[in-house]
Amino acid sequence: MHVGHLRTTVVGDALARTLELLGHDVIRQNHVGDWGTPFGMLIEHLLEVGQGTPDAALLENDPNAFYQAARAKFDESLDFADRSRARVVALQAGYEPTLRLWDQLLGLSKTYFSGIYRMLDVTLTDEHLAGESSYNGVLAAICDEL
In the chain, what are the domain boundaries? Predict the structure, then answer.
C-alpha cells in the first residue's frame, strides 16, 4: 500500500467516525481492486516462482516486494504481460485452479490490509470490503439492461 491507497482510507474513516459521533447511521464500504490485471500478474508470478519458495514467502512477509517483482516482469516481458491478461480472463471465467490461487492471494491481501489498518487505528474490517469481484455475478444483467 502506498499513500495514495491510504489517503482515501484514512479520510473515509475520519468522515465515518465524525458522522457516527454526530448520530448518523454510517455504512462503511472499502472498494478494493481484486479482479483485474494486478491479480493476473500476481497469480502468474506465483505460478512462475512456485508455491513454497522464498519468492512466494514474500506474499506473507513483504507483499509489496512480491507485487513489485510481478509488476517489473509485466513491464519488461510482453509474454508475461500477455499471460497475466489471459489469467484475468481465466479468473473471470471461473477457471477453478485460477480461482483457488486468487482466493489464496485475496486472503493474504486482506491480512495485510487489516494489519495496516490496525496500526493506523482505522475501523475498517473484512466485512466492509467490497471488491470488484463482488459485482461479477450481476455484470451480465447490467449489460443486458444497458
Answer: 3-132
**Which residues pair with residue 30 across a beta bridge?**
129
pLDDT tens digits along 86-99: 999 999 999 999 99
Residue corresponding to grid cell 470488484 = 132
The C-alpha torsion from 36 through 1 and 126 to 114, rounded to 10°, is 150
What angle, 0 to 180 degrees and rounded to 10, lies between the N-to-C axes of helices 3-21 and 96-120? 60
Q: Collapsing DSSP states into helix, strand and coil, what is residue 52?
A: coil
* C-alpha cell at position 4: 495514495
Q: Report if pTM > 0.90.
A: no
For residue 145, give the C-alpha cell.
439492461
